[in-house]
Amino acid sequence: MSTERRTIRQRLRRRSRPLERAIVATLFVAGAISIAVTLGILWELGKESLLFFGDEEVSLWGFLTTTTWQPQAGSFGIWPLILGTVYITVIALVVAIPIGLAAAIYLSEYASPRVRGILKPTLEILVGIPTVVFGFFAITFMTPLLRGIFGETTVGFFNVLSAGIVVGFLIVPLISSLAEDAMAAVPDSLRQAAYGLGASKLEVSLRIVVPAALSGIAAGIVVAMSRAVGETMVVTLAAGASPRNWTFGEEGLSTILDPFEGAQTMTGYIAITASGDLSYDTIDYNSIFAIGLTLFVMTLGLNSLSRRIVKRYRQEYE
Amino acid sequence: MSLRAPDRPTEAWFPDGDEYLTLLDRRTRRGTIAKFGFLGLLVIAVLALASLLLTIVDDSFGLVAVVNEKEPEAVVRDLGYDPARVTLDSLSKEDLVTALSGAINRNVGRRLEREQRFFEDRLAFESQETWDELCASDDPVPGCTRGARSQGDVLLLVKERVVVPDIIASNGFFPSVFDGDGFRERVREAFETSPQRFGDYTVDQVRFQWRAWLNMEFLTSPSSSIPELAGIRTAILGSAWLILFAVLFAVPVGVGAAIYLEEFARKNRINDFIQTNINNLAGVPSIIYGMLGLAVFVRLFEPFTSGSLFGAEGAGSGRTVLSAGLTLGLLTLPVVIISSQEAIRAVPNSLRQAGMALGATRWQTVRSHVLPVAIPGILTGAILAIARAIGETAPLLLVGAAGFITADPSGPFSKFTALPIQIFQWTSLPQEEFRNLAAAASLALLVMLLALNAVAVILRNRYSRRLSS
Asked: Quick check: B66 and B168 in contact, CB under 8 A?
């Protein structure tokens, strides 16, 4: 009897399954490919950037401190490109934050289910439209519109304002949907408590729901900011291809920050340089990787910031 | 943190009578204003979307002023037909070749024939001996092996080289509908005030006609430097090849990674790191992926991506469909992983437990219980990822889609152009007609995306119905 029981126990024992282990190993490799992608990005950006800074024409110090970007003349100061990127991002946020937040508040607190059912998908269409189509829109609609309003002599054909406004429209749905999600997560009991104290709908929205959802809203805005920084096609088409170089003390702030003139961004420089006939191991080739590294660090920083905001300040509700 | 007792409520906190009513009025008014304020801002976003779509439609259709070098009727008449009864489009290939040979010089004709012959059985421009000699040489011309041109191809040539339409002015859809005469008047005026702008053309040659820039010819013609004849066939085929490779790479790897992370990964630092890393990758700007593709696929793996490793004919640089498709694959990978993870997570745990209780191993449970239920969700995510990849432009600029390409991609090692790239190039040209082409191509792209999204929505609806019933 005891031998019989032993054989049964042996039969039931976990067998080693080589095929299953191979499958799991393959699946692990699939998961690990994403790490290889990150390493590949870091390696290539880093390696080419080192080559760039190793060139005798370039110095890291000059890259970080001078305010002229003229590859043909051998001056590589990144600030004009950063200025273009930051300027367009700021304009985009000025457009997108009020619209996105208002849309989120309206959809989450005011709209009837029927109106919501129409407006929300409409906003989401904006996410699906390719950015190159937005670029086309900026050039054929927004720029002529601005030139019509402010006069053709003041507004250049390529200008920061048009690009910024259109990038703003592009990121509105990002802000509105993330903010709305955060507001929807605020428990109804909080609203009802406020209504019970006699608060009006506006007071409930602005003083109860928005503060309670603030971490989600802030995270959404930061994600939208990162998206605007990395946006390429609209700025390449609408903001032009000349970096806005300046020398301290010579140009006034109004010239440096003129919204009606063009300014090349980091992404715009990469796109324009790479779409020409770019030969390997030239200073132009290496320079786009140095810019790319800067861009990568900026967007990575913004994305981690947004995740940190969510983690740190999220209110947990029962 | 120090705590302080709230102030004792005083009478002043609770106004009554008239003061109460004024305050209440003010609060109500403020509420109403804010409500319309919120709605107004939301409407701005909707208006932006509407004006974007209207701009595209406006530029895709409208009145144009055309000057033909030779009127199509004259071509028909010269061939001995009655222009009132026969149109150029309905002529036979023989007649079209005759019209062509009457208008172009012999050398041009020979060159065209060497590219692709006109008839299967005879030669139109080349002499038989030269042809045999050309085909017997070490480097035969493409015309030796390719089939003959179709009637449509020859018609296009006739239009391109005999009729030579030149659109001298174009007008948007809405202005054309509401003020078509104004446009005609402006063109005639322009002829009077500055005839030098139009070269040898006279005002009598100008024909006004409605033109849909997005038409069958546009969809089926290759790109061309003459805006009247340019089309997006090359670009559509290029986009299709790109998507093929992107899907072949991103879907298996993405779904595999999602299965691993959801079903097999223990909670340890490596797996946490993989998950964080995927979330980070989803936020990397697409142009960075383009740089990765340029450095790795185009440059490092050049022997592989240019096809020279496989002895592909005419292998050039690594700026091929394959490189660009893989780049788009990397770009969509995080999106596919995250959406597949969501689909797998949505599968109820009871299903897994049922499988395990019957003695199935983890993988057997996944294969026979989890995946079949999760597949519609995974597919939806994959389709949405494809929709995103189709519209991507920036990474393609980096991996070399920049050239002017009129030949259809024929395999993984071809040079290519893609729909969004074509839109970008046309948008950045100054002439008005290319603006129209960009609008028509955008419209075509949006229709494709709409179709893909519709498929995704249908899949999702069907899926959610099945789970709930």
From this structure: yes
Residues making up chain A, counted from first to last: 318
Contacts of B449 in chain A (CB under 8 A): 128-130
DSSP 3-state of B380: helix
Whether A299 contacts B285, CB under 8 Å: yes
pLDDT of residue A86: 95
Cβ contacts (< 8 Å) between A26 and chain B: which residues? 256
Is A247:A68 a contact under the CB 8 Å cutoff?
Answer: yes
Instruction: Give chain A positions within 8 Å (CB) of B287.
Output: 230, 232, 267, 270-271, 292, 295
Distance from C-alpha of B285 to C-alpha of B277, rounded to nearest angstrom? 15
Mutate to test the interface with A, among B26, B39, B253, B288 (most CBs of A within 10 A): B288
CB within 8 Å: A34 and B337: yes
Instruction: Report pLDDT digits (tens) over A217-273.
Output: 999 999 999 999 999 999 999 998 888 888 877 777 888 888 898 899 999 999 988
Instruction: Name the DSSP letter for residue B225.
Output: S
Q: Are A235 and A84 in contact (CB under 8 A)?
A: yes
ipTM exceeding 0.85? yes
Residues of A in contact with B438 (CB under 8 A): 136
Tell me which H or E stretch contains A69: strand A69-70
Residues A288-314: pLDDT tens digits? Answer: 999 999 999 999 999 989 888 888 877
Residue A75 φ then ψ, to 5°:
-110, 125
Q: Which residue has the tokens 């503060």?
A: A211
The torsion angles phi and psi of B67, rounded to 5 degrees, stand at -120, 120
User: Chain A closest CA to B315's CA: distance in Å?
Assistant: 18
pLDDT confidence of residue A235: 95
Q: How far is CA B107 from CA B101, B102, B104, B126, in A?
A: 11, 13, 8, 9
- What is the secondary structure of B307-371 as a DSSP string? SGGGT-TT---S-SHHHHHHHHHHHHHHHHHHHHHHHHHTS-HHHHHHHHHTT--HHHHIIIIIH
Structure tokens at A284: 């132009």
Distance, CA of A282 to CA of B251 (rounded, Å): 36
Q: Do A200 and B41 touch (CB under 8 A)?
A: no
Chain mean pLDDT for chain B: 85
* Sequence-ordered list of residues with C-beta below 8 angstroms from that of B126, at least 6 positions apart, any chain: B110, B113, B114, B134
Q: How far is CA B412 from CA A245, A267, B246, B382, B415, in A?
A: 43, 28, 12, 22, 9
Judged by CB atoms closer than 8 Å, whether chains meet at B280 and A169 is answered as no
Q: Which site among B28, B53, B260, B405 would you substitute to test the A interface, given the most A Cβ atoms closer than 10 Å to its Cβ?
A: B260
pLDDT digits (tens, 9 = 90+) for B114-168: 878 888 877 888 788 888 888 887 777 777 777 788 887 788 788 878 888 888 8
Task: Tell me the C-alpha to C-alpha distance, in Å, between residue A251 and each of A80, A254, A255, A257.
Answer: 13, 8, 6, 10
Alpha carbons B286 and B173: distance in angstroms, whole number? 34
Q: Could you tell me if A200 and A121 are in contact, meaning their C-beta atoms sit under 8 angstroms apart?
A: no
Q: How confident is the model at residue B80 (pLDDT cuts 50, 70, 90)?
A: confident
Joined together, the tokens standing for residue A165 give 């406004």
Q: What is the maximal distance between C-alpha atoms in chain A?
A: 103
Pair of tokens at residue A267: 């992404």
The reply to whether residue A106 touches residue B392, judged by beta carbons under 8 angstroms, is no
Check B292 against A102: CB less than 8 A apart: no
Which chain B residue has the Cα nearest residue A123?
Answer: B46
For tokens 């493409």, the residue is: B142
> What DSSP state is assigned to residue A136?
H
CB-CB neighbors (< 8 A) of B256 in chain A: 26-27, 29-31
